[in-house]
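TA notes, week 10

Several of you asked for a full example with nothing omitted. So below is the full record: structure tokens for the whole chain, then the designed sequence directly under it. When grading your own attempts, check the secondary structure regions first.
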């Protein structure tokens, strides 16, 4: 009996060791003991019943994704899901010491490289397991060493981890352009299926964009016929400064534009095609030296795209009808939207309200 007991005990110990070695990123729930306390409010929590792993959910059944809790951003200025609306977003919970996360990393990096310019934004939420993974200098070093070029945000207080009801590393969420969670996968694998989901959501965006060739904007009752012109034609129609900003995504110097300090009532139209874009009703003084608005006259009149120029990740704002560059949108504005559309004056034409 003693010999049999020893054999059984040995098997149990071996199984335990095998579990630790093979599955270092085991499922884990974080309690309150020993956790850093954030002074900011935690994001809204996704119900654990709302998202079924490895199931592609229709938009009507998908929950809204919680926004990112405050943390230190690497490879990017701070991002928010609100500012990323119009993009497909892949959120991966990982930590650099996780064996399974490192195995998943090549696929995530490949998706970022292949689809970033097609409408995908990858965000790595670094939720540490061990003490060395909480040190910012270690995270920065590993992100650079691993060749991670997409935005990474630290989650040392596990606020975002808890908001998404994450239980293990790595966990991937894929969000559609409205910010709804359409796909979830836990652990390694399912790379082909995840990429198919990305492609499907990007295709949905493309088909919707094509439908805007003939779109009615409810707020402005404007029927949009998409405008496409040659580069030579734009050069002839626009002034050199308008062409540089509108067609080459340039930026005018702050406090030099015609409208940054304009307080008259009226509507701001696209300087290239005349589409109504912003109203004086949503204009506010941001102190930046550029015209700032907390909302467009219609979300149907603009598009958002990720801009990775100057070693930053920003959200570019374009006219939906002619594709001209207007400026960028940030999530640092006051209520009611929290958004700041920072627009070049030269990209606008103001018509005073009669």
């Amino acid at each position: 009996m003693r010999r049999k007991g020893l054999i059984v005990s040995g098997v149990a110990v071996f199984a335990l060791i095998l579990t630790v070695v093979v599955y270092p990123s085991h499922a884990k729930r974080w309690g309150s003991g020993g956790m850093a306390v954030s002074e900011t409010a935690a994001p809204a929590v996704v119900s654990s019943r709302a998202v079924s792993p490895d199931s592609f959910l229709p938009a009507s059944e998908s929950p809204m994704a919680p926004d990112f809790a405050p943390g230190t951003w690497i490879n990017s200025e701070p991002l928010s899901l609100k500012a990323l609306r119009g993009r497909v977003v892949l959120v991966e919970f990982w930590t650099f010491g996780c064996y399974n996360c490192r195995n998943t990393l090549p696929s995530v990096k490949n998706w970022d490289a292949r689809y970033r310019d097609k409408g995908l934004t990858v965000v790595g939420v670094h939720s540490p397991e061990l003490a060395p993974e909480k040190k910012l200098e270690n995270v920065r070093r590993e992100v650079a060493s691993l060749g991670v070029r997409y935005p990474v945000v630290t989650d040392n207080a596990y606020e975002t981890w808890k908001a998404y009801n994450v239980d293990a590393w790595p966990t991937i969420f894929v969000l559609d352009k409205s910010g709804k969670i359409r796909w979830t996968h836990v652990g390694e694998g399912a790379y082909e299926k995840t990429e198919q989901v990305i492609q499907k959501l990007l295709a949905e965006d493309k088909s919707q964009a094509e439908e805007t060739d003939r779109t009615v904007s409810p707020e402005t009752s404007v029927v949009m016929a998409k405008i496409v012109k040659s580069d030579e034609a734009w050069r002839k129609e626009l002034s050199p400064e308008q062409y540089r900003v509108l067609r080459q995504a340039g930026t005018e110097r702050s406090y030099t534009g015609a409208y940054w300090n304009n307080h008259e009532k009226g509507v701001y139209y696209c300087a290239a095609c005349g589409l109504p874009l912003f109203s004086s009703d949503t204009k506010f003084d941001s102190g930046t030296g550029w015209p700032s608005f907390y909302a467009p006259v219609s979300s149907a009149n603009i598009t958002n795209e990720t801009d990775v120029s100057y070693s930053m990740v920003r959200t570019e704002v374009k006219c939906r009808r002619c594709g001209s560059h207007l400026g960028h949108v940030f999530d640092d504005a006051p209520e009611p939207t929290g958004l700041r559309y920072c627009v070049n004056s030269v990209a606008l034409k103001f018509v005073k309200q009669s």
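The longest helix spans residues 2-22. Use that as a sanity check on your answer.
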